[in-house]
Amino acid sequence: MENGSKVIEKEENKGFTKSIISTVKNIKLGYGMDIYQMSTPASLIAPFSSLTYISDSFAKNFEILIKANSIENDLDRLLEIFKYITTIFIINNNASGKPIVPVVGETQRFNFSNKDEDGNEFNDSFHCAEHVQNSPYPLSVSSTINKKEGIELVYNYAAKILFMGTYFRINIDEAETFIKFDKYDEIYNIVLPTLYTRIFRGFSEYAGKLKIEPTKSNYYIDANFQSKPLIGGKYHYFEAYVCKKDSNEKIYKIFGQWDKEQQILNFHNYEIEFFFKRPQHFYEKQLPTELLPTDSSLVWKGLIDAHNCGNNKLKLKEKNKVDEEQKIIENQRKIDNIEFKPVYFIKNKETDKWELNKLNK
């Protein structure tokens, strides 16, 4: 059982702020401490694994990337990719809900389809994710692909949730995010902003730098996601500049709220026009006929059922049960001197990076 579980069980019926304060006190939570794998009050655990969070983020508006694949002009294509990136941010309605840390070997794999707001269908996409290690740091890897269109989005990350006194900061270390378009032999490398949970203000937000830089095109996007001030200001506001690589000349300024309407300023004529409004998503998963026992929905079924019934005591019990089973499996691997091998992903020995096994594409 995780350290502090007895403390957590006592906190299960307390309010959010009281739970946070009591948890900080009882487990001696210090400034800058990583709490990603630390015990959390059952009421503050989200009823889904971070693998589910990732899949929903990247798949729900994937049709925008498919549309981008049909845009020949590299500048216009970059703008379309930026639109897509502004749709991947998801804010949990429960500002305190911490996604479950996946167990080693936990997987997700499914086909999915999208519709745009005009009813056009976009099929033949699939998403695959796997949690490949917990030591020396937790690492999940994922690929979202449309093989017919020749598009692949890769997102590999090692998360840390740092306690910063009045907020939690989710650091994504060892991160690698890129989108590959076979048609243009182009890779778009992406740096994403940081997610902050403002504990006592009751909301979460993304803040910091976002950058999209293609490997071949002469254009890139540099954006700043701004924190909501205590007084005034807007939630989820950003400003982005579209620039030329060879001269750093600014071509456009895009500004607005990523969850609402955005506008674009053309520096050539200083005209401002509508740019983008986050669309509704019409996203449908098609699960395999037979799920692997490592699928997130099966690994955490007991916890999810307990959450849906509002039973925090059982929720905590189910969480500890999975953690204990995982410890037994990991200890047995050590005894037998067996190295864990992911089901879907392999590490490229030349690049030292994780890739989706070609047999799974």
Q: How is the quaternary structure best described?
A: single chain
**Radius of gyration, taken over Cα atoms and rounded to an integer in Å:** 21 Å
Structural class: alpha+beta
Strand content: 35-45%
Shape: globular
Main β sheet profile: 15 strands, antiparallel
Count of alpha/pi helices: 8
- Average per-residue pLDDT, rounded, comes to 84
Please outline what is shown here.
This protein is α+β, with helices and mostly antiparallel strands. It has eight helices and 19 strands. The strands form three sheets. It has a 15-stranded antiparallel β-sheet that branches.
Describe the protein's topology.
Elements: H1 5-11, H2 16-26, E1 33-34, E2 45-49, H3 50-59, H4 63-68, H5 74-85, E3 98-100, E4 107-115, E5 121-133, E6 139-146, E7 151-163, E8 167-181, E9 186-191, E10 194-198, E11 203-214, E12 219-225, E13 237-244, E14 250-257, E15 261-266, E16 271-277, E17 282-286, H6 296-299, H7 301-308, H8 312-336, E18 345-348, E19 353-356
Parallel strand pairs: 2-3
Antiparallel strand pairs: 1-7, 4-5, 4-17, 5-6, 6-7, 7-8, 8-9, 8-10, 9-11, 10-11, 11-12, 12-13, 13-14, 14-15, 15-16, 18-19
Helix pairs in contact: 7-8
Description of the structure:
- The chain is α+β, with helices and mostly antiparallel strands and 361 residues long.
- It is 23% helix and 39% strand.
- The strands form 3 sheets. The chain has a 15-stranded antiparallel sheet that branches. Strands 2-3 form a two-stranded parallel ribbon. A two-stranded antiparallel sheet has the order 18-19.
- β15 and β16 form a beta hairpin.
- The N terminus is likely disordered.
